[in-house]
Write a structure and sequence with these properties.
alpha/beta; Rossmann fold; Dihydrodipicolinate Reductase, domain 2; 2 domains; six-stranded mixed beta sheet; 15 helices
Length: 353
Amino acid sequence: EYKVLNLFICGIGTVGGKLIEQIRSQYDNLKEHSRLKLNVVGVASSHNAIYSRDGIDLAHYKEQLKASEPSSPEKLRDTILSMNIFNAVFVDCTASKEIAALYQSLLDHNVSIVAANKIAASSSYDDYARLKETALRRGIKFLFETNVGAGLPIIGTINDLRNSGDRILKIEAVLSGTLNYIFNKISANCPFSETVKCAKEEGYSEPDPRIDLSGTDVIRKIVILAREAGYRVEQEDVDKHLFVPDYFFTGSLEDFWKHLPELNADFEEKRKKLEAEGKRWRFIATMDHGKVSVALRDVTQDSPFYNLEGSNNIILLTTERYKEYPMLIQGYGAGASVTAAGVFANIISIANV
């Protein structure tokens, strides 16, 4: 007798594609060792969708998708609800607002949700709370571990601490692999504008790096962590200390690239001073008893953030129990494989195996 989960996977880009590969390669193993059968009953791309109650052949899903009918978010939702399958899990590997808007009606119809998409958990607090409450009331799951730190066990750890009676007092974290890469790379030979270009070319940043430089991504992440830690926080509550002037974010992307080198001299002057003092730059998100901020800070050699390499993430949790020596979680905070693995782990946790 197997436990069966019926999965609808939405988004087949880097993360979704990797997830399908991982499910396919683990399928027999999970069946044999965990008595768990993962049945992928739906796969949707941005324009098409395929469905099969008996399970889609994951070796040939791309060809089937190409030959399928056009789809839309509304069509996707209606088809999932009309199939009315037990133990259904909707897996969102997109970054789409329209897909995140489907969660409430899916949860209302007993479909669990696993989201790599950050939009729902970081949108208005009332919407977030309603999604959580609906899942709880209906005995299903709304999980989004990979919203922060890719596959690192951050949200799950915060939940475990709280459920066992601990209280999260403070969170300090480097949550942007892109910005950490930029501030590790900046040097006398590699000016600021050049590091931003490299981050884009090497696939660390968003296609529009302003999303990273404006702190938008980090703000979303720290808001999610603050909420999971038990505080009522909105994105507008975050105190922002950015390092690129506001007017860089208002024009076209072309203007942005054209004017970026104007910041180099100022950055180089500050960088020299920093180097002489033996310090480094880190873009740090902080939640202190419900007060939330993001800022570019100088860190000294005795800081746990000082030696953070490449695009890694680090999170320090100060709690009632971990007061003198905070808990530290560190590792790859970006990348398709580790993100997909984090989504996969969330899916398996729904089966309670």
